[in-house]
Design a protein that fits this description.
Layout lengths: L3 H4 L1 E7 L3 E4 H4 L24 E4 L8 E8 L2 E6 L8 E5 L2 E5 L9 E5 L16 E8 L4 E2 L1 E11 L2 E11 L8 E8 L11
Antiparallel strand pairs: 1-4, 1-13, 2-3, 3-12, 4-5, 6-7, 8-9, 9-10, 9-13, 11-12
């Protein structure tokens, strides 16, 4: 039986169309978190850590994630420059990068999608490229794209723009393309694990 380390891997992540990334990469504006409803706050809560999508191809650094196998599914950590070491988690209806100081890590499983080669399932081998849906075990649903109006400050006034973000329901399931960079990968701070 394979160990958790043997089942853990690093992959670059993209969508089948458009560009996937954190809001910090995808949008020039400092977008405000629309899910924070604290009307008494003097400073808005910004959303650079949200996972988002834009329909056109844009030359941004692709996401690189570390998929850590556990008994309860995969925990995903960011290995990209943006938010390095944080984990991909669920918060207030969206997925984004969160500090590892938080106790409850989100867990995921793969849902097979037929790839161009005609094979089913997710085969994890170095150099492989697979297409899959990522199912959140927090919600029991595959990641999907939703749209929301996000506010931002421009020339001393508030503006609004419609943006796509990664959610757990209410949209089309998102097909992810995983390019496996390294298998049998160690955890960020424990290279001697088994």
């Amino acid at each position: 039986m394979a160990t958790h380390r043997e089942k853990s891997f690093i992959a670059t992540i993209s969508s089948e169309f458009g560009t996937l990334g954190h809001f910090r990469q995808l949008h020039a504006e400092s977008l405000v978190d629309p899910f924070t409803r604290d009307t008494w706050a003097f400073t808005p809560s910004f959303a650079p850590h949200f996972l988002g999508h834009i329909s056109e191809d844009r030359p941004v650094q692709p996401l690189q994630w570390y998929f850590r196998s556990t008994d309860a599914g995969y925990v995903i950590y960011t290995r990209s420059e943006h938010f390095f070491g944080s984990y991909i988690g669920y918060g207030d209806g969206y997925f984004g990068a969160f500090s590892t100081k938080a106790e409850n890590r989100s867990r995921f499983r793969f849902e097979p999608v037929v790839g161009e080669e005609g094979r089913h399932g997710v085969v994890i081998g170095e150099g492989d490229e697979v297409i899959t849906r990522l199912v959140s075990l927090d919600t029991g649903k595959p990641l999907c794209l939703r749209e929301e109006h996000f506010k931002y400050r421009s020339l001393k006034s508030w503006q609004s723009k419609r943006c796509s973000y990664i959610a757990a329901d209410g949209g089309e399931p998102l097909h992810l393309r995983l390019k496996i960079v390294q298998t049998h990968a160690p955890y960020l701070d424990n290279p001697d694990e088994v």
